[in-house]
Specification:
The chain is of the alpha/beta class. The protein is 48% helix and 14% strand. It starts with a strand and ends in a 5-residue tail after the last helix.
Length: 202
């Protein structure tokens, strides 16, 4: 079965931590270890609920602020600082532009309800995709089989006609179990090498 679609994860694939210094400085300023700050933002109960649409992004950040003792009016500055070290993976953005000539290109992300806005403003790459499957919008996240089925259905391809790229091995394995081809992303050279095995790039 020939490949007709390539589906990308977002965090730690298309957007990378370019400089950890801002988050380190923020954690120090707040008097918490960086590991705890990251846990509150990404892995706390409210983060997980927001990821499947049970809470809004505003409710999640409010809970983070409460846990850190940060007043509501200071949260916008904290949020901006938290993300300030992120960089777009420009090499992959260039790849997506080229893939569009021959393939459908999708995004499949465990993300909060503000991702579309982020992809229009702070990281303006949303227009590059034929479809966006965002966990908060569809009420389920990776590695649930249903979200992979939804991603290929919305691109109008069969699972075996899609290649999915993610940095989390459990998500990659779940995609394979659902019938998709999948690549565990570690870095750009490795990804390009793996894409060549599918004859997606020369």
């Amino acid at each position: 079965m020939s490949i007709r679609a390539v589906i990308f994860d977002f965090g730690s694939v298309l957007v990378l931590m370019g400089d950890e210094a801002p988050r380190l400085a923020l954690a120090e300023q707040l008097g918490v270890p960086l590991k705890e700050l990251n846990r509150l933002v990404f892995d706390s109960e409210t983060a997980i609920k927001a990821m499947i649409g049970e809470l809004t992004i505003e409710q999640h950040w409010q809970a983070v602020g409460t846990a850190l003792g940060v007043p509501l009016d200071e949260m916008p500055a904290l949020i901006a600082e938290f993300w300030s070290g992120d960089v777009i993976n420009e090499e992959l953005v260039d790849l997506i532009r080229k893939l569009h000539q021959d393939y459908k290109v999708g995004l499949l992300s465990n993300a909060w309800d503000d991702l579309r806005q982020v992809l229009d403003t702070r990281i303006p790459i949303g227009h590059l995709f034929d479809d966006l499957v965002i966990s908060a919008e569809v009420g389920m996240g990776k590695p649930a089989p249903g979200i992979y089925h939804l991603a290929v259905e919305r691109l109008a391809v069969q699972p075996g006609e899609a290649v999915f790229i993610d940095d989390v091995l459990a998500n990659v394995e779940a995609a394979r179990a659902t019938g998709l081809n999948a690549i565990h992303y570690q870095n750009n050279p490795q990804l390009f090498s793996d894409l060549r095995t599918y004859n997606i790039i020369a």
